[in-house]
Design goal:
42% helix; six-stranded parallel sheet; alpha/beta; 14 helices
């Protein structure tokens, strides 16, 4: 490709507020080399605190419009009316929308899909007749509209692509590009030898924010049941929350563990402390029923933990035969899966090794290279 034909990409990260979205942006801009794919510059628009954690690169130009520090209405107004002008002034050829809820009409565009809540069968009903449910219905409409308008769409898993296209229709050009996992997790190999009964309890860990589709309170019921069967086991929940899900967690603790003997909940833990926390646990539980890309599951896989996992969504696609599966709504099946891991050292060893091996495909260099390749190819295709 000639210098005069080099591609200038604009990234709209104005709505990147979740931990997974931020980690993704840091990952693809830290690893890989866009210049190798015919890209001369990348312009990044976002709010200042996010731009501050993005590493500086010679080919990266950061923009922090004041509107992105304002209300959601001001952010949407900027995205719809100001962003196209700023893209044109920067000389960008194509936009990468990192959120499918965009209201931008910039073309050509590659749009990422990272939110499954409004699409996963049965999940939206958990919210009853509430503002949250109405918001999800509106969000699904906006996402379907932006996905259909995009020249290319990036899905994080094949499962997400299948379910979402059942709603928005078949899309013209798609790519499956899962997230990577940080090197800190790959370096934090499981530190514990499996405990003997008399030494200490088996430390079970679940990392996820409290939401109705995460079923932490059902996991508490399963751990309580295992203790009644004579297993010396505890549960640590990392990731707090508020609303109905957190109330269910508190109610379960009040009934099943009023003396705080076996359940501990951290409302927040800095990301840099998670690898060590995982490495010093014995067993990982992941009971979510709705994920686009289960990042914390992949992090536990990278550490090499034995995993009991939900059989819903993309989890079997990601974990494959590297764990033991259960129905997240059924405490008995959760307890059974955990008990299988407890009772068989051969099984533990096998799934630990398999999960760690599977995690190797999830790296930011691959994610970055595949992203720039797809964006560049999409732009060139639109020129034909």
């Amino acid at each position: 490709m000639k210098k005069s034909d080099s591609i200038v990409i604009g990234i709209d990260a104005s709505r990147n507020r979740s931990g997974g979205a931020i980690a993704h942006l840091v990952g693809i801009l830290s690893e890989g080399d866009p210049l190798s794919f015919g890209i001369s510059e990348i312009h990044l628009w976002s709010y200042k605190s996010l731009l501050d954690v993005i590493p500086d690169r010679p080919w990266l130009i950061k923009h922090s419009p004041p509107a992105l520090e304002k209300s959601i209405f001001r952010q949407l107004w900027w995205q719809r009316f100001s962003f196209p002008i700023e893209m044109k002034l920067a000389g960008c050829n194509i936009v990468l929308n990192t959120d499918a809820g965009t209201v931008s009409a910039v073309q050509p565009a590659v749009t990422m899909s990272r939110d499954m809540l409004s699409y996963e069968p049965g999940v939206i009903e958990l919210f009853g007749f509430s503002k949250a449910r109405l918001r999800l219905i509106l969000l699904r409409y906006m996402q379907n509209r932006s996905l259909r308008a995009a020249d290319g769409v990036i899905f994080l898993t094949k499962y997400a692509a299948k379910i979402i296209q059942q709603s928005c229709g078949s899309l013209r050009s798609i790519a499956y590009i899962p997230h990577g996992v940080g090197s800190a997790f790959k370096q934090a190999h499981k530190a514990n030898v499996w405990p003997k009964v008399e030494e200490r309890p088996i430390r079970c860990l679940y990392v996820s924010n409290a939401e109705l589709y995460k079923y932490q309170w059902v996991v508490i019921q399963a751990i309580s049941s295992l203790r009644k069967r004579g297993h010396n086991i505890t549960l640590t929940l990392i990731g707090g929350g508020k609303g109905p899900a957190q109330k269910l967690i508190k109610d379960a603790i009040a009934v099943l563990d009023p003396s705080s003997e076996f359940v501990e909940q951290f409302t927040f833990l800095p990301q840099q402390e998670l690898p060590d926390k995982l490495a010093h646990a014995d067993l990982f539980v992941f009971a979510s029923s709705c994920e686009n890309m289960p990042n914390t599951l992949v992090e536990a896989m990278a550490v090499g933990m034995p995993i009991a996992c939900s059989d819903r969504g993309p989890m079997p696609e990601v974990l494959k035969d590297g764990g033991i599966y259960f129905d997240p709504k059924d405490a008995d099946t959760i307890a059974k899966a955990i008990e299988q891991i407890i009772q068989s050292s051969a099984l533990r060893s096998a799934i630990e090794k398999r999960a760690e091996l599977l995690s190797q495909q999830y790296n930011w260099k691959r994610c970055s290279d595949e992203t720039w390749t797809f964006v560049a190819d999409t732009y060139l295709r639109t020129k034909i």
